[in-house]
Amino acid sequence: MTHFESELAALKQKLLLMASHAESAVNNAIKALVDRDDDLARKVAEDDDKIDHLEQEVDAACIALLAKAPLATQLRLITSAMKIARDLERVGDEATTIARRSLDLSQEPQLKAYVDIPRMATMAMAMLNDALGAFVNGDTARARAVIPRDKDVDQLNKQLYRELASFMIEKPTTITRCLNLMTISKALERIADHAKNVAEDVVYLYEARDIRHLGATAA
Amino acid sequence: MTHFESELAALKQKLLLMASHAESAVNNAIKALVDRDDDLARKVAEDDDKIDHLEQEVDAACIALLAKAPLATQLRLITSAMKIARDLERVGDEATTIARRSLDLSQEPQLKAYVDIPRMATMAMAMLNDALGAFVNGDTARARAVIPRDKDVDQLNKQLYRELASFMIEKPTTITRCLNLMTISKALERIADHAKNVAEDVVYLYEARDIRHLGATAA
After folding, report:
1. Which of these, B52, B57, B29, lies nearest to B190 by C-alpha position?
2. Which of A38, A48, A129 is nearest to A95 (CA)?
């Protein structure tokens, strides 16, 4: 392995470290919501700094590497790393949103047992996990399989939005809580979007094909 | 001007073309909302494709240029261009969201005259315009001045959110309309976020300093 190659490998490692922070953030935010654990929710919001700083480190490493990268595949790896880092940073932001809304929600009695939200979280996190696994192993089939699953999360978010909107109309005293749950559901929908972006970047990285905006069937 | 420099200039032009499409999209979406103009709202949603494709063109041009860029300043211009393109693409998405919600809103009687939303739109679009102007002229003072204004748009969004939440509680028949207005307000808040991102990229581009996540005073 040349020095340049080991620097690229270190870049990948840093991206995976970022990914593990982002994943923990979302998992902890959902756990804080379900368990009504305010300390955990506050911790998620505080720890978002770490993810933000990792993004800056990834970017700085990318710029340093770009100047030395002779091959198109290396350039693609570096620019993809920057994009993936941005998406992971946003996943961290969404985790913070979930954590903040969980804090609001734990001020009032729980509306009902949460079923759909943990389910959406599981789906979104599995997408992110698969996209990152595909990145590590260069497995574009696995990356491609992530993309259509975004629609399922969108559907669940829309369904939950409608249910919560109806619930509000029936019981206006629940409006604040329903709004917080809508925001959390939307945050999960965005996390799935970011996972899809990462999957598209992985396909681009290994196949040199831009598959964004093609729609589920064409992709 | 060398061939490489003229390619960089063409890249900047393409980014500005993208910016003008994104700006028109937001302006038209707000116009569609205020004038209850469904045709215009539909046009905004349809035209989002153009912005998406421009982002892909910018990315492809960046990758081609990166391989040939010898200087750190050029590398920064190219990677900044990719980031700015991503932000503009998202501005287009938010415009589409506004347009879609405007279509929903025009199915029902108007709740009241829209005051805060056009005001937020004006603020967010002025931020974007200044950030892009700073990009064109290498004016980092102008870019830095954009950043704290994001907080004002955030404040307006939060205020509107609270007002609409109270309004819903008083008059549950307005819930669907209030939810649509909340989504539009949130979309404008995100557009201001993207403008702030662009401003931060411009500072980074011309000063080689990463000022993200420093907070308003430090920046």
Report:
1. B29
2. A48
Alpha-carbon distance of B147 to B142, in angstroms, equals 9
- In B, which residues are within 8 Å of A213 by CB distance? 49, 52-53, 56
Q: What is the spatial distance between Cα B61 and Cα B6, in angstroms, rounded to a whole number? A: 12
Tell me the C-alpha distance between A104 and A29, whole Å: 13
Q: Any chain A CB within 8 A of the CB of B46?
A: no
Give the other-Cβ count within 10 Å of B71's Cβ.
Answer: 10
Does A169 contact B169 at a Cβ distance shorter than 8 Å?
Answer: no
CB-count burial class (<10 Å; 0-12, 13-18, 19+) for B92: buried
The SS3 of residue A21 is helix
* Radius of gyration in angstroms for the set of CA atoms belonging to chain A, rounded to a whole number: 19
ipTM of the complex: 0.83
Q: Which residue of A has its CA nearest to B197?
A: A86
| Chain B CA closest to residue A85 | B83
Where would I find the H helices in chain B? Answer: 3-35, 38-66, 72-105, 116-137, 140-146, 149-170, 175-207
H/E stretch holding A210 reads none
Instruction: Determine phi and psi for B165, rounding to 5 degrees.
Output: -60, -40
Q: Which domains does chain A have, with CATH numbers?
A: 3-207 (1.20.58.220)
C-alpha–C-alpha distance, residues A56 and A18, integer Å: 11
> Considering only CB atoms, which chain A residues are within 8 Å of B62?
79
SS (H, E, C) A79-121: HHHHHHHHHHHHHHHHHHHHHHHHHHHCCCCCCCCCCHHHHHH
Decide if B11 contacts B44 (C-beta within 8 A). Answer: no
Q: For residue A219, is pLDDT > 60? A: no
d(CA B169, CA B216): 35
Other beta carbons within 10 Å of A158: 12
Of B75, B168, B179, the CB nearest to A67: B75
Tally of CB atoms within 10 A around A162: 10
pLDDT one-digit tens code per residue, A185-206: 999 999 999 999 999 999 988 9
Element (H, E) at A43: helix A38-66
Residues 6+ positions from A24 with CB-CB distance below 8 Å: none
Q: pLDDT category, A70, cuts 50, 70, 90?
A: low
Q: Are A112 and A199 in contact (CB under 8 A)?
A: no
